C-alpha cells in the first residue's frame, strides 16, 4: 500500500464529493490563467439536487444510457468519498 503522506506535509486532497469533483474539473481547466480562473469561479458543485431545481423533471438522453456500455462497471463519487473519510448525508 502506498503512503498518502501526513496532514502536516501533504499531499492535500479533498474528501467531500463536491470538492473532489471541483478539484477534478480544476485539473481540466487552465486555472492559472484569467479565463480558467473565471470559468472555475462560475462553477457550482452541490451534493444532491439544489432546491431551485428539485421540482423540475430530469431529462434522460437515450444515447447516453449506461446500459449501452459493454461493461456496466462504475463507482459512485460518494463511495470514493466515504473511503477517503468523509462523513456526509446524501439528499
Structure overview:
The longest helix has 12 residues, at 17-28. The chain has three helices and no strands. The chain has a domain at 12-48 and 76-85. It is extended and about 45 Å long. By secondary structure, it is mainly alpha-helical. This is 50S ribosomal protein L13. InterPro entries: Ribosomal_uL13, Ribosomal_uL13_euk/arc, Ribosomal_uL13_sf. GO terms for molecular function: mRNA binding; structural constituent of ribosome.
Write the layout of secondary structure elements.
Layout: H1 17-28, H2 34-42, H3 77-84
Q: Please state the average pLDDT score.
A: 86
| Strand elements, count | 0
Percent of residues in helices comes to 25-40%
Structural class: mainly alpha
For the terminal residues, how far apart are their CA atoms? 33 Å
Give the CA-based shape: extended
Low-confidence stretches are none
The arrangement of helices and strands along the chain is HHH
Query: What's the total helix number?
Result: 3
Proportion of residues in extended strands: under 5%
Largest sheet features: none
- Global Rg: 17 Å
Pfam families: Ribosomal_L13 (PF00572)
InterPro entries: Ribosomal_uL13, Ribosomal_uL13_euk/arc, Ribosomal_uL13_sf
Keywords: Ribonucleoprotein, Ribosomal protein
GO molecular function: mRNA binding; structural constituent of ribosome
Amino acid at each position: 500500500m502506498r503512503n498518502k503522506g501526513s496532514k502536516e506535509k501533504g499531499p492535500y486532497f479533498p474528501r467531500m464529493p463536491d470538492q473532489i469533483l471541483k478539484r477534478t474539473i480544476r485539473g481540466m481547466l487552465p486555472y492559472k490563467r484569467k479565463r480558467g480562473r473565471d470559468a472555475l469561479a462560475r462553477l457550482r458543485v452541490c451534493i444532491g439536487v439544489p432546491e431551485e431545481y428539485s421540482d423540475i423533471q430530469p431529462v434522460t438522453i437515450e444515447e447516453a444510457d449506461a446500459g449501452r456500455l459493454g461493461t456496466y462497471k462504475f463507482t459512485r463519487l460518494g463511495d470514493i468519498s466515504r473511503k477517503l473519510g468523509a462523513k456526509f448525508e446524501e439528499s
